[in-house]
Amino acid sequence: MARRNDLRPLVKLRSSAGTGYTYVTRKNRRNDPERLTLRKFDPIARRHVEFKETR
After folding, report:
1. Which Gene3D superfamilies does the record match to this protein (predicted)?
2. pTM for this entry
3. Are 5 and 27 in contact (CB under 8 A)?
4. In whole angstroms, what is the distance from residue 49 CA to residue 31 CA?
5. pLDDT band at 2 (very low <50, low <70, confident <90, very high)
6. Chain-centroid distance, C-alpha 13
7. Using CA atoms, how far apart are residues 28 and 41, in angstroms rounded to an integer?
8. Parallel/antiparallel/unpaired status of strands 22-26 and 37-42
9. Three-class HEC string of the chain
C-alpha cells in the first residue's frame, strides 16, 4: 500500500542550470506553501546550483 499524505506531497526539484537533472523530495505544505527553492549539487554541471520546484 502506497503512503499517501496530502500534508507532505512529493515534489520534483529541477536544476536551474538547464541540465535537466532532478531531485525528488517531500515538502511540508503547511510550513512551505509557496514553491520550494534549494541549493543542491548538480552532477552534470559539476557544481552547486539552485533547484526549483516544478509541478
Report:
1. Ribosomal protein L33 (2.20.28.120)
2. 0.84
3. no
4. 23
5. low
6. 3
7. 22
8. unpaired
9. CCCCCCCCCEEEEEECCCCCCEEEEECCCCCCCCCCEEEEEECCCCEEEEEEEEC
